[in-house]
Amino acid sequence: MRPGVAPGAGLSAGLQPGTGPxxxxxxxxxxxxxxxxxxxxxSDRITAVVTVADDxxxxxxxxxxxxxMPPGDLRMALAALCDDTxxxxxxxxxxxxxxxSEGPLAGHAxxxxxxxxxxxxxxxxxxxxxxxxxxxxxxxxxxxxSSVPLDxxxxxxVSGGRSSPPRVELVRGQAAVATTRGTVEEVRLLxxxxxxxxxxxxxxxxxxxxxxGPGSWFTSVMPHLxxxxxxxxxxETPARRCLVLNLxxxxxxxxxxxxxxxxxxxxxxxxxxxxxxxxxxxxxxxxVEELAAAAEEAGARLVLRQVRRGRTAVHDPLRxxxxxxxxxxxxWGDVA
Length: 336
Hints:
The protein contains 13 helices and 10 strands. By secondary structure, the protein is of the alpha/beta class.
């Protein structure tokens, strides 16, 4: 952070409609939510592109029962973009509310049920999400990355113990990959060549900036690079690209993976994709030179900014917004 500049200082508290750069943020779950909570301070021209491979919890149950795309990550993205008024915050909290009971509603989020109902009535996933966005006064738009629900499978290297060598196992399902105790070597989508939503491809190609991460690396960030039309748009867009790294390694799917290894694992799954900036918190980087080298291999400059909330493993929305403001404006100052 630049000397004398408070976290979030100068961030817009009341953006006018149509202001700010056109930004596409790709990811899922809490990581994408963190990006969106930051970006909403900088622009209302935001498009969130959300993974649709979740098969756990409320989303997994609705997906299995109704044959729909998992709504949970989409709901979280909409909530993160809500209008900062009593109306917007109230509806955000309603969407995020989960039922507590001993019956079949236990664990379901209200927003998941609302989205599922709109999809059934309208027969169009994007129209349903746009309606929820209008209810929230969302500062931006939320889109599923594909037109169909997806599954994730991974090759996972598992320790064989003292008496046998390591072996590679096939693990299928987002929840299973996310909680594996092995080392993820490669991830794939099923079906292998899923269609991208045309609105997503259009948004990426028209963007000023594309932001990937933070989030669960193999199950929320990388899947965007495995949808052929979306991957092509990410490679070919004239937009600049920013990769936001996590504050810590995931306890399971990326356990022990260094920040540099995160960058290299991602680029290995997306041949030809180049970045302009890799953004990281200095407290999360033990070897700055190694990470700077990995960023350079991806065509990017490493930008270090304090974005952590205290000593937690949570991004501070205003600190992240201040860092992203510097990235989007090119005011990088101290870089590695």
